[in-house]
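Glucokinase, Enterococcus florum. Tokens?
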Amino acid sequence: MTNTVNNMIGIDIGGTSIKFSLMDKNGAIEKKWSIPTNISEKGMFIPKEICESIQTQVLNNEAYMIDGIGIGVPGPISTDGRVVLQAVNLDWYDLPLKDLIENELGIGVALLNDANAAALGEMWQGAARGKENLLFVTLGTGVGGGIVLNGQILNGCHSAGGEIGHIPVRSTENRLCGCGARNCLETFSSANGLTLSMRKKLEEVGESWASLSAPRIFSEAEKGNPLAQEVLAEFIDILGQALAGILNTIDVEQVIVGGGLSAAGDQLLKPLKASMDRYVFPQIKHHFSLKKAQLENEAGSYGAVYAYLSMNDLN
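Tokens:
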């Protein structure tokens, strides 16, 4: 890569590692690396260590000239895009990350929520390429999401747009969510929610498994285990209702599913599409697609770079 503008760095900050991607404005990746996430002292060293890593890996090399940096963070961002309001896993509260990085490196920064970054990444270079209206859903230990309308992230008035994991579910159960509420969607339709449902079902019938995990439940259901099939069907029905409700509200053309549970592929996606079709408004039924995310761990970095390009009219 020669000296030129429009070379970018995309950063995805996670609870255990921080991933970096050096790419051009078309999304071609030149270099990737990562560093451990240092959560000691309430994560106070992370901004400095990000800057040091960029300096060492890129800026000290005269072959690279960086036009901007995009950063995806696991938490809500202030409406002006400058402050991480809260990142529980990093113990950050009201951290002015954009200013800290810009002041240290002298390079412009776009800061956004990591799920929103992944949604933009899938739109730009992934499963939703060529689409401008989509719902991105991450199914992992929790349930996350990002909503893109007319090519722009819906962040909301309080930086809480796309928090689909906290849609309330009507249930006779009383499941406590990490947000403090009860019976949020992610207490039922995440990997943790699925394993909890399976554990409850096994207890009802007086059975137990030596190991209990979401992949095990999918595997047992595929083998014909009626208990696993029942629990998985309920999981998919609850998720399908919630996603159909979102589609009835925003009427997008595509739903992209990522996160660890998306590894189940058609075993998840086919019945989920059928469930959504049962609940969506007739005008929408058969007029949206449901796809597995393509970019996996790269989605956040791609989306963070895309956000910078969009904010600075470079794409």
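Confidence is low (pLDDT under 50) at residues 1-5.
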